Amino acid sequence: MDLQLVNPDVEAFYRFCAERPQGVTTEDLQAAGWVDQGQVMSAAQELLNQGRLSLTQVGQGQLMYSAVDPQTAAKFRGLEREHMLVYQQIEKAGDKGAWSKFIKDQTNLQQHTITKVTKELIRRQLIKEVKSVQHRGRKVFMLWDIEPDKAVSGGTWYQDGEFAASWIESLRDRCLQFLENNNGRVVSLQDVHAFIQQQPGPSTPTQEDVAAIMRTLQLDEVVYSMQSSNGQMVYAQRQRGANGEAFDLFAGRAPKFVTQAQDEVGLVVPCLLCPLSGECHVGGRISPEKCDYIGNWLKGTQAEPAASNARDLDARMNDW
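RESULT FIELD:
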């Protein structure tokens, strides 16, 4: 619509709202002299039709008017009533998105009309189409600048609705690379996460995501992991013998990871530093009832200085 043909009251109303980015309530309008409700509703409706104003309910019967910036407003210019109906339903859906059947039920528009409208809204970069992980084969619509909920996108481990196997494998390789670069030293989860963040990728894994990757390496017997006395997770690369087999704690000296970690982080419960804790169960080859280290720890070794405990536990573990 040509702005020269717009009622001056409409432009005055828009400027009033634009000067107050936090939004304008009915009370604000009345205090500024906009007491004619018919005039307010007429101006607001015209601006809504132009896409230059947004309207939200903030309380019992209370409305909030917010001006839309000119760049965004330009994307709405020329759209018809059907476009705005569809856009409003998608906006309400938020980061969960709205699929075409839901939009059809809410707007009573024909499916071919919805298809035509959504294509135009996508072309104007007002909405986007996202593959849903929850419902295979279904695509949902959401506003262009909204980040999809993890329930929809699948989070870090999914890209365009598909499981990102190659991305996960590359993360595993980078975690191993960091351990190899540290030449057997104990590293913390924070250290590994900081290293991963330095290298670009299709997404930025959180610290919890990196912990999940390290867990897969631990299950593959590629790394050791333990929890320190302050709750921090630490890791070291699992050493292998000349024949390529993983180190068996019962076959010789305790790995440097165990003894070094004790010196660095202080006293920990024996079970937390034992790399065979996952195999320990009642009645098994490795079991709590056969473990002298738990008994000695419970009898008072936890009261000794951290360094003394580390040396003592190291000596006892070497008896294996």
